[in-house]
Amino acid sequence: MSISKPLIVPYVDDFSITVASPSHRGNIRKLQRLFNTVAAKGREIGVSFWVPKTELIHWRTPSQRSPPSVVPIELERHLFQPSKVVRWLGYWFTPALNTTHHFRHRLSLAQGIFSFVKRLSSPGAGVKRFLCDRIANGRLLPILTYGADLLTPKSSSLRSMDSFWHRVQQWTKNNFFSTPTSILSREACLPPVVSYCRFRRRLAALRVACAFPYANPASARLPQSFPSLSSFRAQYSSRHLTITLSSFYLPLSWKTDIPSPVTRKHLPVDALAHLTVPLREGLTRLPLVLQAPPPPWRTFPPLST
Fold first, then answer.
1. 2 in a domain, yes or no?
2. Does one domain contain both 194 and 104?
3. Inside any domain, residue 292
4. Which of 18, 187, 207, 275 satisfies CB 3.0 to 4.6 Å to 7 for a cystine?
5. What does the mean pLDDT of the chain come to?
6. How far apart are the first and last CA of the chain?
7. How far apart are the C-alpha atoms of 142 and 93, rounded to whole Å?
8. Which of 200, 228, 250 finishes a domain?
9. Are residues 275 and 245 in the same domain?
């Protein structure tokens, strides 16, 4: 199927289409044309789509204000108003890409699980301490920090997550509530939330940097100058979504840290690539993790010069 320059991300029975234009109405027209093209291709092979499940969202920068009214999109005589929050694979996205909603939702889920887990036994009795550590590490921490490999929690979200995590650390070792929070991590042998989130982002950076492009499409979107043993790179890397709008949207070099305050827009893969800089330790090239060979039907076109 040949569709020019959208960003299409499929997963099992769902997929998302992202386009870019200077106006919301331009986005609507492009999305409608793309949907009609996809629906026509699907009818040729006997595939149909459940249109009422569609969600629409318009991305904008944090400095841009939300317009007072945005026209809905019409797909097969169904109208869809732009959503304020969209969920995709457990990630909660907002128009301004604010991570507060996502981590607030993860915190509420972790709190619900923790209230159930605490009923397993009274403090100091029942479940042994090492089992409490395993519950905290294997159950609560992954739920609380899900999405930290791509999204960075803001300071307000980190304070709420830290407060909850301190209660978990006190529960695992049956500490007093007056125990200083600065020693809870060492006493409970549980990592601080901010350190664990940074660890998750570095692991994600290594997965992208050391993966073959056919195994991880994000690896094909690394800059050409990135020191990888793989020579394949995506021809346009979907960077038109940020480059063609204005001079403010510029890709971030993989060697450059994210400026603070942020003065230009970058893609998530640019920020991930930068996290590998302190992990290279003088290596001229990052090694590639061996994977099974690509299927015969997955071939890539030659790069244009």
1. no
2. yes
3. no
4. 18
5. 79
6. 23
7. 19
8. 200
9. yes
- Cα(220)–Cα(294) distance, integer angstroms: 14
The per-residue pLDDT for 161 is 95
Residue 177 belongs to what domain range? 99-200
**Residues 67-87: tens digit of each pLDDT:** 767 788 999 888 999 888 998
Of 185, 110, 116, which is closest to residue 153 (Cα–Cα)? Answer: 110
Three-class SS state of 12: coil
Picking from 125-129, 181-185, 195-199, which range would have the lowest pLDDT averaged per residue?
125-129
| Cα 158 to Cα 160: distance, rounded to the nearest angstrom | 5
Is there a single domain that holds both residue 276 and residue 246?
yes
What single-letter amino acid sits at 236?
Y
pLDDT at 99 over 80: yes
Long-range contacts of 30-33 (CB under 8 A, 24+ apart): 30/6, 31/56, 31/73, 32/73, 32/74, 32/75
- Residue 296 confidence (pLDDT) above 50: no
Q: What is the rounded CA–CA span in Å between residue 49 and residue 42?
A: 8
Q: Report the DSSP beta bridge partners of residue 265.
A: 249
Mean pLDDT of 252-274: 68
- Domain total of the chain: 3
pLDDT > 60? residue 300 = no
